[in-house]
Specification:
It holds the Pfam family Peptidase_M1_N. InterPro entries: Aminopeptidase_N-like_N (IPR045357), Aminopeptidase_N-like_N_sf (IPR042097), Peptidase_M1 (IPR001930), Peptidase_M1_aminopeptidases (IPR050344). This is Aminopeptidase N-like N-terminal domain-containing protein. GO terms for molecular function: metalloaminopeptidase activity; peptide binding; zinc ion binding. By secondary structure, the chain is mainly beta. The protein folds into three domains: 5-72, no CATH class; 88-296, Sandwich (Immunoglobulin-like), CATH 2.60.40; 300-353, Zincin-like (2-Layer Sandwich). Helix content is 14%, strand content 43%. Strand 2 (20-27) and strand 3 (31-37) form a beta hairpin. The structure holds 2-acetamido-2-deoxy-beta-D-glucopyranose (NAG) (6 copies). Residues 272-273 line the site of one 2-acetamido-2-deoxy-beta-D-glucopyranose. The site of one 2-acetamido-2-deoxy-beta-D-glucopyranose has 3 residues, from loops.
Length: 353
C-alpha cells in the first residue's frame, strides 16, 4: 500500500461538507480514500474513484511542469541585480581561473610604529585571469570596504582593451566593469585592479585587526575570516564558493612582523622598514578559504612523518606553552591522512593560538 499526500483538494465536492486542514489519502485497489477533517475536527471519509484522484495529481504535475521553466529561465542575467538575493551572486558569464594578489599592509603592530593616516589600511593590487563563457559587456566583481579603484583589462595576447566605465556600488558590494567592446566567448582575459582597503575593524569579519597585550604595550595583529562571503574585503573577486581558482599572494608587511597564508613561503626579503613575503600558488579552491595573518608572533616548528612543516604561532609571552599543540598537531595530521587515505595537499600547516 502506498501513502499519497494530497494538498489543496476540496472535499466539499465529494461530501458537500466544509473541510479544511491536512488530508491524507491512501491508495487502495481501485479507490482512493481521502481522510479529511472538518474545521470542527469531525472525520469525514469520502470515497473518490481512482481515476479522479489520478487526474488531479496529473493536473497538478502538468501545472508544475509548465510553471517551472517560466520561473527559472532568466533571459538577462543582470536584470534583477537591484534585488539583494541576486547581487549575492554574479552572472556566470565570466569564470575566474587565477588570482595574483599583492598587498602592502600598514599595520602599526607595536607602539612606535606609526603610519599616520595610513594606519590600518592597505594598498592592494590584484591580477585576475578569467574566461569569458558567454559574450558580454559587463564584468561584475564583489568588493567591499575598498576605494580608489584603477582598472585595466587585457586580452589573451596582452593587448589592452579600453573600458567604457567602471564604478563601485557600496550597497551591492559590487564593482561594475564595462569594456567598450563585447568580450568573446572562450577567451581568457586579465584584469589588473589597484585599490586601497582598510582593516580598522574590530568585529572579526573579513580582514580585521585584533589587539593583544604584550607586557605593558598594546600591540596589533592583522587577520582574516573570509567565510562565508568576506573575501571581497581583501581583494575584488568572484566571491561565490563554486567559482574556484588558484591564488598566488605576495604581502609587504612591517619589518619585525611575519606573514602567514594558506601555502608555504617562497620568498622572504627585507627591504628597509618592510619585509616582502611571497607564497606558493594554492590548489584550486574557493575564495572564502583564503587566509592571511600578519603579526609579530614567534613560532615553534616541527614536521610530520611525510615532511609537512608544522608551525605554532603565538604571542611572545606564550611561546613556551606551545608544546602540546606542537606534539599533537603532526600526529593528528598523520592519523587523518592514513584514516581518510588522502594526502594533505599542502607543504605546511600553521596554527595560530
Ligand atoms: C547601487 O545599487 C542599489 C541597488 O541595486 C541601487 O538602488 C543604487 O541606486 C545603486 N547606487 C549607485 C550609485 O549606482
Ligand atoms: C597609528 O596607530 C598607532 C598604534 O595604534 C598609534 O600609536 C598612532 O597614534 C596612530 N597614528 C595616528 C595618526 O592615528
Ligand atoms: C598597481 O599595483 C602594482 C603592483 O603593486 C604597481 O606596480 C603599480 O604601480 C600600481 N599602479 C598604480 C597606478 O598605482
Ligand atoms: C564590521 O566592521 C566594518 C568596518 O568597520 C563594517 O563595515 C561592518 O558593517 C561591520 N560588520 C558588522 C557585522 O558589524
Ligand atoms: C624606518 O622607520 C624609522 C622609524 O619609524 C624612520 O626613522 C626611518 O626613516 C624609516 N626608514 C625608511 C627607509 O623609511
Ligand atoms: C621559554 O623558555 C626558555 C628556556 O627555558 C626561557 O629562557 C625563556 O625565558 C622562556 N620564555 C618565556 C616567554 O617564558
Amino acid at each position: 500500500m502506498r501513502v499519497v499526500r494530497v494538498t489543496a483538494f476540496d472535499a466539499r465536492a465529494a461530501r458537500g461538507k466544509p473541510a479544511a486542514c491536512h488530508r491524507m489519502g491512501q491508495l487502495e485497489k481501485d479507490r482512493f480514500r481521502l481522510v479529511a477533517y472538518t474545521t470542527l475536527g469531525h472525520r469525514i471519509d469520502p470515497r473518490i474513484p481512482l481515476s479522479i484522484a489520478w487526474m488531479t495529481l496529473m493536473g497538478l504535475l502538468i501545472v508544475f511542469l509548465l510553471l517551472t521553466p517560466l520561473t527559472s529561465i532568466r533571459l538577462n542575467p543582470y536584470d534583477r541585480l537591484d534585488q539583494i538575493f541576486d547581487h549575492l551572486q554574479v552572472p556566470r558569464e565570466n569564470v575566474p581561473k587565477h588570482y595574483e594578489i599583492n598587498l602592502k599592509v600598514f599595520l602599526p603592530y607595536r607602539p612606535g610604529v606609526d603610519y599616520g593616516k595610513r594606519n590600518f589600511t592597505f594598498d592592494g593590487f590584484v591580477k585576475i585571469i578569467f574566461r569569458c563563457e558567454t559574450p558580454n559587456r559587463k564584468i561584475l566583481l564583489h568588493s567591499a570596504r575598498q576605494l580608489g579603484f584603477r582598472v585595466q583589462l587585457f586580452d589573451d595576447l596582452g593587448k589592452e582593451i579600453s573600458l567604457q566605465d567602471h564604478y563601485h556600488n557600496h550597497s551591492q558590494e559590487l564593482l561594475h566593469i564595462q569594456p567598450a567592446d563585447l568580450l568573446t566567448a572562450g577567451v581568457d582575459y586579465t584584469l589588473h585592479i589597484n585599490y586601497t582597503g582598510g582593516f580598522d575593524n574590530g568585529n572579526f569579519t573579513g580582514i580585521y585587526s585584533a589587539p593583544y597585550r604584550h607586557e605593558t604595550e598594546k600591540r596589533w595583529m592583522l587577520a582574516t575570516h573570509l567565510q562565508s562571503m568576506d573575501a571581497r574585503t581583501l581583494f575584488p573577486c568572484f566571491d561565490i564558493p563554486d567559482a574556484k581558482a588558484k591564488f598566488k599572494a605576495t604581502v609587504e608587511h612591517p619589518f619585525g612582523t611575519n606573514a602567514v597564508s594558506n601555502t608555504i613561503e617562497t620568498l622572504v626579503v627585507n627591504n628597509g622598514n618592510w619585509t616582502i613575503t611571497a607564497f606558493k600558488e594554492t590548489p584550486l579552491m574557493s575564495t572564502y578559504l583564503f587566509a592571511l595573518c600578519v603579526s609579530d608572533f614567534p613560532y615553534t616548528e616541527t614536521h610530520t612523518l611525510k615532511g609537512v612543516r608544522v608551525r605554532v604561532y603565538t604571542e611572545p609571552s606564550k611561546v613556551n606553552d606551545t608544546g602540546t599543540a606542537l606534539d599533537i598537531v603532526p600526529r593528528l595530521l598523520d592519523f587523518y591522512e592514513d584514516y581518510f587515505q588522502y594526502e594533505y595537499p599542502l607543504m605546511k600547516l600553521g596554527e595560530l593560538i
